[in-house]
Write a structure and sequence with these properties.
592 residues; mainly alpha; two-stranded antiparallel sheet; 30 helices; elongated; ARM-like; tRNA binding; RNA-binding
Length: 592
């Protein structure tokens, strides 16, 4: 009823319908009651008219038009199928053209500020973005590109219409990026070109949101080519302004969007982008912990998307990246985490820590190479220490992703990388001050163990010469002595993990899961070693009563088996601490 009333109002009293307070109110109604439009197709025409006529995305008041672009995107998401099947798409594309042309050009901070100051009703419309956010690229008008992509990304859109509209819009956006990347203008004009390029890169990423991998690579491969055509000039912008973090953020976001839309077609651009991110933004700059964290986030997304096919890329990039990560963590790292909660990476036979953070009773060495701890002043910076902790956490998540995405073969082929990953994960699982970091490290080690310890079926069929020997000789012994003993038994028995705390209980649960994998893959030989040596000889628990019950609880698959196993392990820990008074524990925090 309200939409019909609007239709009549717009035809009889257009000035009232286009009022800066009335127009946004109706658009909000269209979005809120989109289900009514879907159920009654007759309402589609007045609803689209409200958005696309002079009272919507082309409204003369900038605050209203910006708000209309955002609301139109929200309206299109649930109703785009109706728009297509009722034949309204060509008309919508034609009506959107002025709004798309306007939104492709960024508003200068001065014009945005004056517009906001001159509009009395901007606070009521909710559409004023302000000069600061518009300058940063968060202009609400950019939502019109997302709506444009959503409409063209429908499977049944005629291919000629889709390609024609997409090429026209991308030509304009790509032109803005190319103009900036090829420019040798003075500094003042270069800032405007830089802002225009950032704006256009965000717009191209918004358009790509509407397309699926199937549409862009199978239904219409030309669409994928168009969507990727802005990536080369965008990468030139990153190289042209290496120290501008906003440009890099926009380009990385655009690249990550294309990973999900065009798939392997992004491979040629992955290495140059990662090399730039690793360089820290310049030939004479070093990448910070935050920069390296972004690199790992990007690689993790690529691993999740492409799995085994990413192996050559990973083999080429990981060795030098791991070296950089070890160097970035070293100024904040100490054995057991120290004051910063950073353990550091094991590389080339040593844990890379800061010698000045090593307690005197450890001789100031801690297995560290003094050269890695040269940047000592940064260790007292709280913000940089937080970034180092975040980098260490994402590295553990990366190690989990390597195994989870069938890329552990990269570590099999590179002994240096393999040693780095395994020793770092084992140290974190057994001695990290954060319970959540121990949990993450154990999850990664579980994945690695599932990859490298053969199942009983493989051994029986002759796929492995003997139980426990997988693609990495000696891994079974490492898993028993370093992970099962130090992380799963010793750390719990000495009281590092408080079973009453939720975060610590989650880490204990992962020790149970790792032990279960070891029992499944190594069988009775490991079960006896666990009972007699790890629990009995080391902690004084009875191998028959406590040891057999320990094995039974860990391998149980009943509904409450996990909770019962944690409870029994807590009882064993109390007994072990009673029989070993004065044992030093490294108490964990729930998270850090």
């Amino acid at each position: 009823m309200l939409l019909w009333a609007w239709d009549v109002l717009g035809s009889k009293s257009p000035a009232v319908a286009a009022h800066r307070l009335v127009a946004p109110a109706l658009l909000e109604i269209c979005v809120r009651y989109h289900l009514a439009v879907e159920r009654r197709p007759a309402l589609l025409r007045p609803a689209l008219a409200a958005f696309l006529d002079g009272g919507g995305v082309t409204h003369p008041a900038r605050e209203v038009s910006r708000r209309a672009c955002y609301l139109f995107c929200r309206f299109v998401k649930p109703t785009r199928g109706q728009i297509l099947c009722h034949g309204a798409l060509p008309g919508v594309m034609a009506a959107l053209e002025p709004a798309l042309m306007d939104a492709s050009v960024p508003e200068s901070a001065n014009s945005v500020g004056s517009s906001a100051a001159n509009s009395v009703g901007s606070s009521f419309t909710g559409g004023g973005t302000g000069g600061a956010t518009a300058t940063a690229g968060n202009d609400d008008r950019l939502y019109v590109f997302e709506a444009f992509g959503l409409l063209l990304g429908i499977d049944d859109v005629p291919d000629d219409l889709r390609i024609r509209c997409l090429e026209a819009v991308f030509a304009r956006l790509r032109g803005a990026v190319e103009a900036a990347s090829n420019s040798h203008s003075p500094h003042s004009n270069r800032q405007n070109l830089q802002h225009a390029a950032q704006h256009a890169i965000v717009a191209m990423g918004n358009v790509a949101k509407g397309f699926t991998l199937r549409v862009a690579t199978q239904t219409s491969p030309r669409v994928g080519e168009i969507l990727a055509s802005g990536l080369t000039p965008a990468l030139r912008c990153v190289q042209l302004w290496p120290r501008d973090p906003l440009t890099r953020t926009r380009v990385v976001a655009y690249f990550q969007r294309l990973v999900t839309v065009i798939g392997p077609a992004v491979f040629p651009h992955a290495s140059p982008l990662l090399e730039h991110m690793r360089s820290g933004g310049g030939a004479h700059a070093s990448a910070s912990a935050s920069d390296l964290r972004e690199c790992l986030v990007l690689i993790n997304q690529l691993m999740a998307s492409f799995k085994e096919s990413l192996a050559p890329f990973l083999a080429a990039q990981l060795p030098s990246l791991v070296t950089q990560i070890a160097g970035a963590l070293a100024p904040f790292a100490a054995p057991g985490g120290g004051v910063n909660g950073v353990c550091g990476l094991f590389l080339d036979g040593a844990i890379r820590v800061n010698p000045r953070l090593v307690p005197n009773d450890e001789g100031g060495s801690g297995g560290a190479n003094p050269g890695w701890g040269a940047v000592v002043g940064a260790a007292g910076n709280t913000e940089e220490a937080r970034e180092a902790r975040d980098l260490e956490k994402i590295f553990v998540a990366h190690a989990h992703g390597v195994a989870a995405n069938n890329l552990a073969g990269v570590l099999v082929a590179d002994p240096r990388l393999r040693e780095c990953f395994l020793e770092t994960l084992a140290a974190a699982a057994s001695a990290h001050p954060s319970a959540m970091s121990r949990k993450s490290a154990l999850q990664a080690l579980i994945r690695v163990a599932q990859c490298w310890l053969p199942t009983a079926e493989v051994v029986a069929s002759g796929g492995s010469t003997r139980a426990g020997e997988g693609p990495v000789p000696g891994f079974a012994a490492f898993a028993v002595s370093r992970v099962a003993k130090e992380a799963c038994v010793d750390a719990v028995m000495r009281g590092d993990l408080d079973p009453k705390d939720a975060g610590c209980a989650a880490a204990v649960a992962e020790t149970v899961n790792f032990t279960r994998v070891m029992l499944e893959r190594l069988g009775g030989e490991f079960a006896n070693h666990l009972r007699v040596n790890l629990l009995g000889a080391a902690w004084g628990l009875d191998p028959e009563s406590h040891g057999r019950e320990y094995v039974r609880r860990v391998t149980s698959t009943t509904q409450n088996s996990a909770r019962e196993a944690r409870a029994f392990i807590a009882e064993c820990a109390k007994i072990a601490q009673g029989k070993n008074p004065g044992v030093a524990s490294n108490k964990c925090t729930p998270g850090m």
